[in-house]
Known about the structure:
The protein is an alpha/beta fold. It has nine helices and six strands; from the N terminus they run E-H-E-H-E-H-E-H-E-H-H-H-H-E-H. It has helices at 22-33, 58-63, 80-96, 108-115, 147-161, 164-177, 189-196, 202-225, 235-246, and strands at residues 11-15, 35-39, 66-67, 100-105, 138-143, 231-233. A six-stranded parallel sheet has the order 3-2-4-1-5-6, sandwiched between helices. It is globular.
Amino acid sequence: MVELANRRYNKPVIVGPTASGKTGLAIKLAKQYGGEVISADSRAIYKYADIGTAKPTPKEQDSVPHWGLDIVGPGERFTVYDFQQYALAKIKDIRKRGRIPFLVGGSGLYVDAVIYGYNFASCKKVNMPDRGRISNNFAVVGIATDKNELKTKISKRADSFFNNEIIAETELILKEYGANSQLAKSNIYPIISQYLQDKITLNEAKELSIKSDMALVKKQLTWFKRNPQITWLKLDEIEPYVGQIVG
């Protein structure tokens, strides 16, 4: 177990790739420590995109307050800067109410924009500004995962994923946002769109979704592994570690 100094951190951040267990862990910790979850996911901000972006279920959202979901509707613009300002305001509000904000997600730039306080007006490369020092009592823990284990989880998720609900959701996304929208071209939606057009079979759609998710895992880990200030722990090690952070 990683030992911490006497300093206490009131802003825990949990990062990791898709299917690593971030959602379930964040909800468990938020319940245990009187917290609220702020999603740092660049796709979960979209309305109607529930299944395809693996948002917490309505039951999960009812169990603890969630923020960062369903922010943007069709035609609305929402930048990394917008998320930064949104998240910082939510963190301030949550702390003001005596609760703990858990920033949780797999979108690396969203997370970094908050914990490093990026000034986007001065960034020459908005996609990867230079990291400085983590500020304002943020402590970042990453979920250490085995890629083979992740692929097994992703494959199981794909088996249960393809049903009438995701098909209906894709049709709604295409209707509301348009086939050329950023959302319709991301996550599972372009794959389901091909299936709806009879360009691929259901099995081919499943295989493509697994391949797409594994590519996302690689992208996410590449981003996060560049950050030496993330403490990497296995899923079952994080709960006691967070106890040290917020205790």
